[in-house]
Amino acid sequence: MACVLYDDNCIISDIVWFKQLRDKAESVKHQGDSLNGKDRGEQAMYLAPLDQEQIRLELEEIPLHITHIALIANSYHGHSLSRVKKGEIHLSDDEGNRCFEVNLKQLPRDCKTLWVAHLRRSVDDWHLTLQNLPLSAEDLSKAAQEVAHELARALPIPQGI
């Protein structure tokens, strides 16, 4: 799982993932990763729900120049996400209320990268758009660029051009 921070021109400002656990402002924190679940013991392999990987966002602490946030799931080793024996991605608030979940087994067989969600800053709040969109990119940096391209396509055209 990764969290990509973009400015208002959809330029990548920061990427938080298991090799970079915090953004520069420390408003996004990755809680570590489990590549196969085995390093978390039998409980991780057989009992659900147990979050093996978490990213926490403190939205009120996100720097003002960040206007878009993308949540991306990616197979680091390039395997299909649907190959996992058990697995799901879910989004929840700080009280544990789930607003979205996807069973990885239900993804297309060749899906290695999934654009899970997009957060867009408005004047005084953040707006969540659930994407659940497989991406063609197979590595995280290319996926972040692919999302940047899609976000830029949706930007309003400035007046007077």
TrEMBL record:
Q: What positions does the domain TerD occupy? A: 13-128
Q: Which InterPro entries does the protein's record reference? A: Stress/Tellurium_Resist (IPR051324), TerD (IPR003325)
Signal peptide (from-to): none
Please give the name of this protein: Stress-like protein
Q: Which organism is it from?
A: marine sediment metagenome
* Classification of source organism: unclassified sequences, metagenomes, ecological metagenomes
